[in-house]
Amino acid sequence: xxxxxxxxxxxxxxxxxxxxxxxxxxxxxxxxxxxxxxxxxxxxxxxxxxxxxxxxxxxxxxxxxxxxxxxxxxxxxxxxxxxxxxxxxxxxxxxxxxxxxxxxxxxxxxxxxxxxxxxxxxxxxxxxxxxxxxxxxxxxxxxxxxxxxxxxxxxxxxxxxxxxxxxxxxxxxxxxxxxxxxxxxxxxxxxxxxxxxxxxxxxxxxxxxxxxxxxxxxxxxxxxxxxxxxxxxxxxxxxxxxxxxxxxxxxxxxxxxxxxxxxxxxxxxxxxxx
Length: 274
Description:
Residues 2-246 form the ABC transporter domain. The chain is an alpha/beta fold and 274 residues long. It has a domain at 2-91 and 166-248: Rossmann fold (3-Layer(aba) Sandwich), CATH 3.40.50.300. It is built from 9 helices and 10 strands. It has helices spanning 41-48, 71-78, 96-101, 110-115, 120-132, 148-161, 178-195, 206-212, 235-242, and strands spanning 2-10, 16-25, 30-34, 56-61, 64-65, 81-84, 166-170, 199-202, 215-220, 223-228. It is globular and about 50 Å long.
């Protein structure tokens, strides 16, 4: 279970990104985090695992107060928090299997990681995860030879290789076509239910969130202005979150063929951190 209590973040510019955010996510629940650009969604996700340091408040992962940990304990705690990125954060020159195994870097010695000599149990688990996400036949392919949807599946498998107790997912479908977006959201929600994993998904596509998540938290200017089931996301609520608009025409995108062509390599600065 994740619990966030009165989380606050003010940047050096004076901008207050989070203004006392509080909520909890029980095991197995998938929460969609929505709101306009600048509402604090990405800051919130990054404060939870302290990629961004909050100014005040607490984050509890089960009984562990993540916000009070020193550097060594924080490194160990991050092994328990899987993160899935919008731009995949894969090492392009490495194979699919090597990218998945990078989820074990926090558990093996420096020389094991440097020489890529992982325990057989880690390799067996990686093969099992690749089968679960539908990429068994791609294990030896380089990451830069994959389509966007396939890359995101590798990112999901890598996060699960950590044996996480929580998933933080930052706009997993922003670079994908509508059909692939639905497939990825379905895969994430199914896996969370299978493993009883709590998850937070930062997502801009409101109809897609409504179709797949258990609960929606809406942010506006760093504050929670809605927290409830997708069915309660009325026109009035959407106006409270996003501002005035004609919400009667909002509907999900039609399915399109899955992207099967490799995307050009992206220069994601996080890729070398996996």
